[in-house]
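[#protein-structures] MJ: dropping Asp23/Gls24 family envelope stress response protein here for a structure pass
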Amino acid sequence: MICNINNEHGYIDYSEDVVANIVGISTMECYGVVGMASRNAKDGLWKLIKSENLSKGVKVRCKDNTLLIELYIIVEYGTKISVICNNVIQKIKYNVENYTGIKVSSITVNVQGVRV
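AK: finished. structure tokens for Asp23/Gls24 family envelope stress response protein:
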């Protein structure tokens, strides 16, 4: 379990996969994002992940009951990368905090490629 919440109603454990799926789906909803990237350990190349494995381009860690998120994306050619990354950060922070109730302390967006 990555993080947990304890309140007057009970105890909630969140697995890393659940949070990573929320992050992956939120990222793909942003304009200019072509897909998530996954590192191929064999030859060191980055490849595009299919839509059913979006969580493979996301790393989630919990520190002091806040989330540290790192994701790897591929963007569309001709778009402004800084605007795309800011939109991705805002959308992920909003969705994760609203869906889970866990605060997000940092989001790192790594742009691994540009696709036409």
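MJ: nice. The chain is about 30% helix and 45% strand.
AK: one more thing. The radius of gyration is 15 Å.
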